[in-house]
Amino acid sequence: MESEALIFIPDISGYTKFITETEAKHSKHIIVELLEVIIGANNLGMQISEIEGDAVLYYRKGDPPKIDELILQAKKMFLAFHTQIKIIQRDNVCQCGACRTAINLTLKFVSHYGMLEEVTIQNFMKIMGRDVILAHRLLKNTINSNEYLLITNDYLNTQDIVNSRLESWISFKKHIENFSNFKDVKVQYIPLKEVKKELPNVSRSIKSSFDYTTPDSSMFIDAPILVVHELLTDHDAKLNYVPGLKEIKDKAPVNRVNTSHTCVFDDLEVHFVTKSNEVKEKEISYVEEGEASVGIAFISDYKLKEEGKGTRLTFKIFSGKLTGNYSFFKKLFSKVMSKVILFKLRKTSVKNLQLFKAYCEKISLER
After folding, report:
1. What's the whole-model pTM score?
2. Most buried by CB count within 10 Å: which residue of 200, 204, 207, 311?
C-alpha cells in the first residue's frame, strides 16, 4: 500500500572519480567513514532504505517535517561530513591518492515529498514508486554547484515558507529539470557554501621536539620517497622485514595519527601508536610510540629526505613513558635498565632497517 513520505538523499559528489582513480584499499575505508558520520547525524528519525555506494536513501512516512527542520538536518549532516574530512586531512599519514584527495569530496542533498510503497524482498525492505525514481533522477541534475540542498516544489507546497523562521544564510534559488517521463520538475535549491563558515576548528597534533643531532642510523635507500614512506607506515609490511614477527593485530584499516597496532612475537607483544606524520617539500617525518609487554616504552623517529631518485632515511630512538597497567617493579626495572634497554633496542632497530632497505628496493624494482 502506498504512503506519503519524505524522500531524502545525501549524496557524496566526486565518489566515482575518487573510487576509480585512487587506491581502492583506502578509498573504500574513507567513504565508509564519511557515510557513517552522515548516518550518525540523522535527527529526523528517518529510515534507511538503502546505502547506494555514495549515497544514503532515507525516507520518513507521514506528514513532512517543517522546512526549518529539513534545512537543519541537511546542515547537521553537511557539518559532520566536512568536519570528518578535516580530521582525515589533519591525521593523514598515508600519501596515496585516496588519502591526499579526500579533501576534494563534496556533499549535496535531494529532498522530495511524494508517494512510495514499502516492499519486502528476501527479508530486505525496499521502497519503490514513481517518486522514488524521481528523487534518484534529481541527483543527476543541471545545477551548476556541487554542494546544495535541492527541494522539490512537491515538498515546498506543504510548507509555509513565508512564516518560517529561517537562518540568514538561507537563500532559495528556483530551477527546473526535465527527464524522460518527468517533464518540468520544479525545484528550489539552497547553496551550502555559507555553512562551511561554521565548521569547527580542528587543531593539528603537535609533534614533540627531539634532539636529532646524532641519529642512530642513516642510510640511502634506492627507492622513491613515497614508496619508502608507504612501506614504512604500512603495518602489515613489517611482516616482510622484522625477524620473528608472527602477527600484526588490532590494527586500524588506515594508519592515521593516534591509530595503533600490536606486533606479536613469540615471547612478547609491542603496542605501537602513530604520533605524528609531517610532510614538507621532499621531506617526510614519521614518529611511532612503542610499548612492550615486558615494561619498556620508546619512541621511534624516522626522517625521509628525497635524494636524487632515492631516499635518505635517518632514524633515532628515544626513551618513552609507560602508559599501560604495569606493576611497580616492572616500571622500576624499566627505569633502572633504561640505558641498557635503549642500547639493545637501537641495535635491533638498525638491523631491522637494513632489512627494510632491502625490502624497499625489491618492491621498487618490482613496480
Report:
1. 0.83
2. 311
